[in-house]
């Protein structure tokens, strides 16, 4: 039965790593490797943590589903009362399949196609976040053809300094592709009066990802509040203030969690000042620590004075170390005496295919299982078939039970949409 969610997602009992109450070797024996494993109770506990922090003001948590778009994960969050933040028509489709309806959805992203805007309006999403003047004009035109008024929010780029572990996860600094430069916001707000098929219902921002303290929010909120006040003075019926997501999670064992209370104190004060409904868009914060990638050691190798641990999971399964130079803690599923300084590498034909470099590791042998921790966000969603490798399975654990939530791809799936025998056409 489900557990309380008060313990870690992956506790060690009797020297064996578990997912909640289920021994990980039992999951690997039943499902194979590589496999992503998620703790349902950790997701529940993380969402509850945010709900409690913001309970004193009208608010809604919209999960940024680009972090993990598995239908079972989405359905769990839907059952818990969350909404979703989407960035594509495909994510809108997934959200619908998981049970979300239009008012549960905020549609973000800088490159929405006409068809995606049409879909969003057909589904009557809560808000479409506008990120450029051209997009604003396009939304008005699409809504006009449908004979509706599109509910929009303007995403403000507050242009503040954001300290994140990697440049690619900064979104609120000057010169980023995201949002409207703050000097242009007033002009777009005024434009809305000239566009009969859009209604400005909110303003928001998103500063980036892995933000470890509230300082960027302290700097950015006054700029967002100023934009909200100006929009209201311009006659717009603003209902929502969206502060995005970005709360950090610990990847290193000695790292602390984001200071939710400090973050909440700042945001709550702003929300009370405006009297608006607060929207939050956490992604990684809800699911990262709930997930681990389970992989089997294939070989041990010693070359040029280095030790290598070769696993059956590669960069196509979890690309974050290669793409962001990201650190993930790696644990031996079954405790073992002795350590070795080694590179943990995968089978992909790329020098960038590694999970760790020169890291003290348990001195595991071929056949041992490893758990790559904090892999519940941007793991499976960023996976690929590079080197013609089927993508891994996904499993959810809830107390003492587990279920496959994504079947492992088969070799036939790799070519399902390809054609070797061509049917030629002429223009």
TrEMBL record:
Record-linked Pfam families: Orn_Arg_deC_N, Orn_DAP_Arg_deC
Entry's Gene Ontology BP terms: lysine biosynthetic process via diaminopimelate
Its EC number(s): 4.1.1.20
Amino acids binding pyridoxal 5'-phosphate: 246, 281-284, 378
Class of the enzyme per the UniProt entry, highest EC level: lyase
Residues the entry annotates as binding substrate: 284, 320, 324, 350, 378
Residue ranges of every copy of the Orn/DAP/Arg decarboxylase 2 C-terminal domain listed in the record: 36-376
UniProt pathway annotation: Amino-acid biosynthesis; L-lysine biosynthesis via DAP pathway; L-lysine from DL-2,6-diaminopimelate: step 1/1
The entry's keywords: Amino-acid biosynthesis, Decarboxylase, Lyase, Lysine biosynthesis, Pyridoxal phosphate
Reactions mediated catalytically: meso-2,6-diaminopimelate + H(+) = L-lysine + CO2
Source organism, top-level taxon: Bacteria
The Orn/DAP/Arg decarboxylase 2 N-terminal domain, residue ranges: 42-288
A Gene Ontology molecular function term of the record: pyridoxal phosphate binding
Cofactor: pyridoxal 5'-phosphate
The family this protein is said to belong to: Belongs to the Orn/Lys/Arg decarboxylase class-II family. LysA subfamily.
Annotated HAMAP family: LysA
Protein name: Diaminopimelate decarboxylase
Organism, scientific name: Gemmatimonas groenlandica
Gene this protein is translated from: lysA
